[in-house]
């Protein structure tokens, strides 16, 4: 079965993932490629919010729960989502993902799961294939925080705070050093500058033909 080329947009909250995923979607679609975007629906988080609201009076009080309870739920959500979508996208050239396995590992470690607990999270996630390419959005913490506080697209959440952002960012830095499919993007720049960097990286990895049947994947 033909598979699309899978690209993940990964990084901490407010780093600009969704904005740039949508830009690449437009760019590739305009070139005639068949492109799909996807984002995991966090059913586990929805249940956790409800639980925390009822029992602690605050939907985001999940620091009151053992981290593993939350993280293993997310691992099932992510695995279920990607196993299902990969069966549905054989006719697409590109699948662009707003977060992938790496994000949930970085958040799991950042939220304080133990090494043994993370082994279980990773065992569940291992059912999903690695993306072909990960754009890691590297932003300064203060800038990400500013974007979260000023964004209009969705409300700021109490768990999107500098303490968590710092821990998760440190975990990303740890994980990405061992990965070969990572392209680090300087996401501190303006939206246009960031997208230019993505296009440059992308085009250096691919020779883009206007004909969909002629995608040439370069070695990287
Ligand atoms: N390079 C940029 N410069 C300034 N503002 C930006 C930039 N990139 C994104 N933004 C703005 O920052 C906010 C967050 O961007 P976006 O939703 O793309 O980030 P994200 O990483 O997907 O965030 P989250 O993980 O919280 O969903 C949005 O209001 C967006 O318009
Ligand atoms: C990946 C991941 C995310 N979260 C939190 C972080 C954000 O506040 C929300 C929404 O995430 P989005 O992808 O930026 O829309 O969820 C989390 O708690 N655990 C995770 O693994």
Automatic annotation (TrEMBL):
It comes from Haliovirga abyssi. Belongs to the thymidylate kinase family. It catalyses: dTMP + ATP = dTDP + ADP. GO terms for cellular component: cytoplasm. Keywords: ATP-binding, Kinase, Nucleotide biosynthesis, Nucleotide-binding, Transferase. Its EC number is 2.7.4.9. One of its GO terms (biological process) is dUDP biosynthetic process. Pfam families: Thymidylate_kin (PF02223). Residues 10-198 form the Thymidylate kinase-like domain. This is Thymidylate kinase. ATP binds at residues 11-18. Phosphorylation of dTMP to form dTDP in both de novo and salvage pathways of dTTP synthesis. GO terms for molecular function: ATP binding; dTMP kinase activity. InterPro entries: P-loop_NTPase, Thymidylate_kin-like_dom, Thymidylate_kinase.
């Amino acid at each position: 079965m033909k598979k699309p080329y899978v690209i993940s947009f990964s990084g901490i909250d407010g780093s600009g993932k969704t904005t740039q995923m949508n830009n690449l979607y437009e760019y590739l679609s305009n070139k005639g490629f068949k492109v799909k975007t996807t984002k995991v629906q966090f059913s586990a988080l929805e249940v956790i919010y409800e639980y925390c609201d009822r029992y602690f009076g605050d939907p985001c009080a999940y620091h009151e729960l053992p981290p593993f309870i939350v993280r293993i739920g997310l691992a099932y959500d992510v695995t279920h989502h990607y196993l299902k979508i990969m069966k549905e996208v054989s006719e697409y050239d590109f699948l662009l993902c707003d977060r992938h396995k790496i994000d949930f590992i970085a958040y799991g470690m950042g939220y304080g799961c133990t090494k043994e607990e993370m082994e279980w999270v990773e065992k569940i996630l291992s059912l999903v294939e690695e993306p072909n390419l990960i754009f890691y959005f590297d932003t300064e913490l203060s800038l990400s925080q500013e974007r979260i506080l000023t964004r209009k697209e969705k409300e700021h959440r109490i768990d999107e705070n500098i303490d968590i952002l710092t821990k998760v960012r440190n975990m990303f830095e740890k994980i990405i050093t061992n990965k070969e499919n990572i392209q680090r993007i300087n996401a501190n720049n303006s939206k246009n500058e960031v997208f230019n960097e993505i296009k440059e990286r992308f085009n250096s990895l691919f020779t883009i033909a206007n004909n969909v049947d002629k995608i040439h994947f370069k070695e990287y």
